[in-house]
Amino acid sequence: MTGSTFQRAAGVRGRALVFSLLCVGFFLACVVPGAAMERGPVTNLPLPRFVSMKAAEGNVRRGPSLTHRIDWVFKRRGMPLEITAEYGHWRRVRDRDGAGGWVHYALLSGARTVLIENDMTQVFTRPDTRAPVAAAFELGVIARLGECNADWCKVTAGGYRGWARKDQLWGVAPDELRE
Known about the structure:
Strand order of the largest sheet: 6-5-4-1-7
Helix content: 10-25%
Distance between the termini: 55 Å
Number of helices: 1
């Protein structure tokens, strides 16, 4: 085989390999759950994702512009919110109760917080129910989110810190791991 014939054969095989890999990737993205994650068209960050309110007050609008009507106002700094869509400088968010709308991105922070879902949620010194209890947080407390494993997250609020069961927190995905 001459050099040019070998190069053409290798080129055809290379294109076939690339095409095959693309097909497998497309198949996995379409068929296998969780294989592909939706990304925001503005930030290229995952959607949905959790953030928190940076401001003490934030207008929630019906659409992504100042011309849209204000439906309500979020009034809790640090409140965890879930971003579900992006459009320019606007993010569509929802709170724990599903209420939401469009908020300007300048009102949001990447600092992660969680909302305590159950009254007197026990916070342990280690991620183990047999560990000593460090504190008990009331329903609705906003806590700073630290590391998370499969079932537990490290949280901090009111000068107390410890591990809470992930299923007692809103603002962290059930399968989310953090270091």
